[in-house]
Amino acid sequence: MKAEFSSLRRYLPPVAVVCVSAACLNAAQSAAAKFDSNRAYEDTRQLVSIGPRVAGTPGAAAARAYITKQLQAVGITVEEQPFEATTPLGAVKMVNLRATLPAASGAQSAGKLVIGGHYDTKLFRDFRFVGANDGGSSAAFLIELGRALKSRASRVPIELLFLDGEEAVAEWQGTDHTYGSRYYVEAARKDGSLKNIRAFVLVDMIGDRDLVIKREANSTPALTDAIWSAARKLNRHEFVSETTPIEDDHLEFLAASVPSVDIIDLEYYTRSGEVAWHSKYDTMENVAAGSLQSVGDVLVAALPALENFATRPGR
Ligand SMILES: [Zn+2]
Description:
Blueprint: H1 2-9, H2 22-32, H3 37-50, H4 58-73, E1 78-87, E2 90-101, E3 112-118, H5 132-149, E4 158-163, H6 179-191, E5 197-204, E6 213-216, H7 221-233, E7 239-244, H8 250-255, E8 260-264, H9 289-311
Parallel strand pairs: 3-4, 3-5, 5-8, 6-7
Antiparallel strand pairs: 1-2, 2-4
Helix pairs in contact: 3-5, 3-9, 7-9
The structure holds zinc ion (ZN).
Zinc ion binds next to loops.
């Protein structure tokens, strides 16, 4: 496909390859965006093989190196956003990673769509926590989404945001959580770019072998509707109509009036019924490629609606 296109290009005047109509963009999108969960599963496995990836530790740095290497390999530039977080355990150096996929040439948009998830794992001293689902799946998902969307003709720039410090250093209370998203939103407010973020889509714990994603109650209904409608069309029954409220990185964006949605399955158990969330059981055997595929397919299918949302007048 790629080779055919470039050989064709040599014989066409430049104007013929500029493509801005909706039909033309749709054709390019369907040809290009294919989420491959086998690759995402392998990325999860690679991240887990690093071991714990707690914010401020060498494990987190190794995870960043892996993420960066994967995205650079397909020609996506990765930018670091370092900051120092004040935690109950003192100052911790944390780093968000940002990778922007530009809009198609000819597409006009001041706004962008941010799709994010955390890559850090929670600190546990009494057991070795490797966070295959919690921290691994979201980071791996975003890497593969980058590969899938690299050649897609998007109508708005899409930023992939790998958040650090989602997990509490001690207990999830006060400000001991979501350090990365809080810093990101604050930095965007300061540099005047906050208004350009038209929507934020968060993925978290989407690798659960037994995936059931409820509508998250704090999320912006129009964004939830767009995603659940895509799931219905694809017969992805993992997206159910039940609603549940969950505190996560999206709350920092919602507090700044950025429309946001959280795609998360917090109910995470082993086959024999032990709690896998924040436990030694959050390992590869409780994560399934099929779950990553479901969320990948749904999100890719929902992108045109999300782009409509991001480019709607009045924002
Ligand atoms: Zn967690």
